[in-house]
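Much of the work behind modern protein science is quiet bookkeeping, done one molecule at a time. The protein below has been through that process, and both of its lines are reproduced in full.
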Amino acid sequence: MSFLLLSLLVSGINEAFVRLLSIRSKFLWAYLRDTMDGSGPEGKAWLPAKVGEVFGALPFLRDPRPAHSDQPSPAESRMPAGETRADDAMTNLLYERVREIDHPKAGRTSIANLPPERFATAVMEMAATDPGGVEALLGRLQSMGSPLYGHLKGVWESAQRDMDRFRKGVESWFDSEMQRLSSLYRRYVKWVVALLGLVVVLLFSMDGLEYAKTLLRDNAFRAGVAAVAAGDPATVGELKAKCTQDIKLADCLTETLSSPALVKVFDHAIVSVSIPAEGDPGVNWNGGVWWERITTLSHWPGYLLTYVAILFGAPFWWDLFRRLTGIRSRR
């Protein structure tokens, strides 16, 4: 249960930063900048190329998103004329065609998901503004040095210049690009979660080996676990009766979280919160004890064990806890 709580904490902190800094939206528009306009300032790609840029460049330094507009998409696209270099013209033009799905808030666009069908429709609308159609759009992209030219040129040739097949081809291509982008995003998120997991383990100074010893010394908890492991019908039936009814789910979790072994293991955090039976909660600063634990090498194998356990993720520990208690999945 402790590993589940720490994993949830890591996931919660990560999600808070993602929402606060609009990371998903920045990631999408960084890809669109690279694909439609080419490299950004100083010839650098907008998408993170190194792990360091995941923590620094994209979240805090560069914002690839177009300026937010609460106006509906115009009836006609305003194609830039006379462009001879790759700049933000095409990305802004794309946003002009899809901004009706944006959230009404100030600042930059919050669009973090662009459906392939909407992207293909926007491309077709941009092509429709020129009498030359798709051929003229491809020519303009080529003159701008846009990387999108090569992708659309291949789709156009594969579609044998059929508009309906071209639209479906653009949808298929963009969908595969979004899948590749999602895989890249998840890979970068793993690095972020790994760093957050290390920080959480050290702040709580949770020694997994010490935690195991504490559980072994908690007679009531050990007896309950042994009964469940042995398949004692009475104990298993009691757990299921308590944990499978919605009205008693809170009681089940409360009792588990109130286990002396579980409560004690979190008392070593740099800051601990005590909730007495009567009165107001109190916050305790444990800086001295925390630092002594951190600088004691004998605790580090336990920290490593806890860190590895957190990397399994909250879904793994929740599934394990659910199987142990008998809680069933519900929508």
Notes: Residues 163-204 form the longest helix (42 residues). The chain has 17 helices and two strands. Residues 82-87, 246-250 have pLDDT under 50 and may be disordered.
